[in-house]
Specification:
seven-stranded parallel β-sheet; Rossmann fold; alpha/beta; 16% strand; 13 strands
Length: 437
């Protein structure tokens, strides 16, 4: 058996969306002849760790060892010092991590200082401890190859240092773009943007393979690094075939219980807003098509910002149909989704990314309504016939789809395409690693 060093900031017991890809790779790679040494952080040391759930760790095979390094939060330390001296600015994030822009276009020296500690991101305190321990493990002769996962990009920087120190084969996996990710909190300043671009170039030029999780992201890399085009490949996200969905209710062949449940899983922030669906429900209510008890819109996860929460509450008609549910452990979330009539996907303003939750929706075989703008998500849904697409700025179109679903008209139910089976996807990673060692 060969051994892979997997460097990932997000890993159980953290429950962030980004941890599942690394978790599944580490759990499934032993089937392909690879033991895995996971190098991650101590989440208990974070100021805002969010919900912690260690249950997935119990399913790891014996060939997987998890090692945790200290993590420092220089950005948070600087922000707390700044707040003590100048007062706390308004926060934008449900976890208190995003700082609101108080005066757009006006940058102070305090912003420059704060932003210096968010290079390449606010998880930069991972870099030195992870790189140091990675080099120690490699020099002990235990490791055959390195894999790192981003975001955060700090994991790639840690792997870069280990690669430069040891020359071991390295695969850098991008779950999202680095320099063109519109969902990343925006800095107050722009002077570090060039440094970000330079860091990405260094990572790409030093990695032996660069994995993207969509064809669109892979093609973007190939366009920008044409001389390295053979270095880039796609390994998409997918569903876990070993995770048996709970007993799923039959779809609406006959009149079932009320209310009709629409569920969105995950954080609402930035361009990912539930307001268009609320407006569509208001339209149906105003026209007498539905009453408050007929429908519930369940927002399972954090809603960032008071403005977004106010939009989701809507007017009197739709407000009573919206149900906010705090983040819950994964198994409970899966049961809730399986008990829904319609699953809601929102992906607006990005062209290179596909939300991981789409694959989980597909695994549950529930109808999906996708509020998307042109890009990778729409391309995938249309190509694989995974759901009904509506533009986020078309409340009338959303209302029409909801009306059909609520009155019992059948919506397309996605299959579970074999190409998104994560066992198969892990095999693609294993083949990539095998070519390098």
């Amino acid at each position: 058996m060969r051994t892979l060093l997997l460097i990932a900031y997000n890993y159980p017991p953290m429950t962030t969306s980004g941890m599942y890809r690394s978790l599944l790779f580490s759990r499934l790679l032993p089937r392909y002849g690879w033991d895995v040494r996971v190098l991650t952080i101590h989440p208990e040391a974070l100021r805002f760790p969010g919900l912690l759930d260690g249950a997935p760790l119990a399913d790891l095979p014996g060939g997987v060892k998890v090692e945790r390094t200290p993590v420092y939060e220089p950005f948070q330390a600087v922000v707390e010092l700044r707040n003590r001296i100048f007062g706390a600015p308004r926060r934008n994030g449900a976890n208190g991590d995003r700082l609101a822009v108080e005066s757009p276009g006006r940058v102070t020296w305090r912003d420059w200082v704060s932003d210096c500690f968010s290079l390449p991101d606010r998880q930069s305190g991972q870099i030195l401890p992870s790189a140091k321990r990675a080099i120690e493990l490699i020099e002990s002769g235990e490791i055959d190859a390195i894999y790192s996962s981003s975001p955060p990009a700090s994991s790639h920087v840690a792997a870069l240092l280990a690669k430069r120190a040891t020359s071991l084969p390295w695969v850098a996996d991008f779950r999202d773009p680095w320099i063109s990710n519109r969902f990343v909190p925006v800095r107050q300043t722009t002077f570090l943007d060039r440094v970000d671009s330079w860091l990405e170039r260094v990572v790409v030029h030093n990695a032996d393979r660069v994995i993207a999780n969509t064809d669109e992201l892979r093609d973007d890399f190939r366009r920008r690094y044409a001389d390295l085009s053979e270095r880039f490949l796609t390994v998409t996200n997918g569903f876990d075939p070993d995770e048996s969905p709970p007993g799923v209710r039959p779809l609406r062949g006959e009149r079932r219980r009320r209310p009709f449940r629409i569920t969105h899983a995950g954080t609402l922030y930035g361009n990912r807003s539930g307001a268009p669906v609320v407006r569509a429900l208001e339209i149906l209510h105003e026209r007498g098509v539905i009453e408050k008890g007929d429908v519930e819109l369940c927002l399972l996860g954090a809603v960032e910002g008071e403005d977004e929460k106010s939009c989701c509450l809507g007017k009197d008609g739709a407000g009573g149909m919206v149900r906010f549910i705090e983040t819950v452990p994964r198994r409970e979330a899966i049961r809730f989704l399986a008990d829904s009539d319609l699953l809601l996907l929102i992906q607006s303003g990005t062209t290179l990314q596909v939300p991981r939750k789409l694959f989980e929706y597909v695994a549950l075989r529930r109808p999906v309504m996708a509020l998307v703008t042109p890009g990778a998500t729409e391309n995938l849904i249309r190509r694989e016939k995974l759901g009904v697409i509506v533009r986020p700025d078309d409340p009338e179109g959303i209302a029409r789809v909801l009306h059909k679903a609520i009155r019992g008209e059948a919506l397309p139910v996605p299959e579970r395409p074999a190409r998104f089976d994560f066992v198969r996807l892990t095999g693609e990673l294993a083949r990539c690693l095998g070519e390098l060692v």
